[in-house]
Amino acid sequence: MKISVIIPALNEEETIGEVITRVKKTCAAEIIVIDDGSTDNTFKIAKEKGALVIKNSMCIGPSAAVRKGIAVAHGSFIITIDADLDHFPEEIPKLLAVADKGADIVIGERQYLPRSSERILSWFTARAIGITDPLSGFRLYKAKVFTNVDFERVETHEMIFLLKSLMHGFKIAGVSVNYNLKQRKSRIGYSFRVDLRILLSGLLFLVCYFSCLPHVIRSKR
Predict the structure, then answer these.
(1) CATH number at residue 113
(2) Burial bucket for residue 196 (CB in 10 Å: 0-12, 13-18, 19+)
(3) Which end of the chain is more exposed for a tag (fewer CB within 10 A), N or C?
(4) Nearest to 179 by CA among 219, 137, 148, 218
(5) Boundaries of domain holding 7
(6) Could you tell me where the DSSP H helices lie in 27-173?
(7) Considering only CA atoms, which of 54, 47, 99 is closest in space to residue 72?
(8) What is the pLDDT of residue 184?
(9) What share of the chain is helix, strand, coil (3-state, %, to 5)?
């Protein structure tokens, strides 16, 4: 079983080294860091820690950064994890255990969602696809998913990719993971604009879900 761990990172010099070290201690994995236009020492530290580092000349966002990592990954299991220690690398085995039971995509689900918009979204996605934390960046994908579902063409959001994966008959599962409620300010913030963006993403998912509902129902049979 070969594992690739993809870490999108933007100005995470304080934590990227520790993340890589802890991943190495947890599992034997190909570690790929996508430096998404950092202006600090993220690239240098990740290279010194032995990761394969891809440097973006400008910030393209975490979803697009993950896509770049997937394009070069060699693992049969592809794991994505944040660079800021929001999630604990030591919990990677939890995701692998669920995948071993038959899931093709595993979401590491936070038990506390800090934003009201996330909780609203969670209520719906839990009932629609059985996932309570669709925005989690801590995920496992079996590589075969990407040979059937074109991630490059899913330009809207990872949630839509989950829906497309269900339509192709892949199994999605969630597993509870610990979450680091850090004191430092979140990079994406807690503003009304962020809540609005999350709710608009949820609305898009809702539209896509109901338009694809017959296919989703068939895939669950």
Answers:
(1) 3.90.550.10
(2) exposed
(3) C
(4) 137
(5) 3-220
(6) 42-48, 62-72, 92-100, 116-128, 144-148, 158-167
(7) 54
(8) 46
(9) 45, 15, 40
Q: Residue 181: what pLDDT?
A: 73
Closest CA relative to residue 152, chosen from 25, 28, 64, 59: 64
Q: Say which residues have a Cβ less than 8 Å from residue 181's Cβ, sequence separation at least 6.
A: 112, 114
Residue type at 126 in one-letter notation: A
Q: Are strands 77-80 and 139-142 parallel, antiparallel or unpaired?
A: antiparallel
- The amino acid sitting at 88 is F
Q: Note whether 103 and 173 are within 8 A (CB).
A: yes
Residues 6+ apart with CB under 8 A from 97: 175
pLDDT for the residue numbered 156: 44
User: Which residues on neighbouring strands pair with residue 7, listed in sequence order?
Assistant: 33
User: What is the pLDDT at residue 39?
Assistant: 96
First-to-final CA distance of the chain = 29
Residues in the chain where the model's pLDDT stays below 50: 154-156, 183-185, 187-189, 217
- At residue 139, φ and ψ (nearest 5 deg) are -140, 160
Domain count, the chain: 1
> Locate tokens 């209520």: which residue?
123
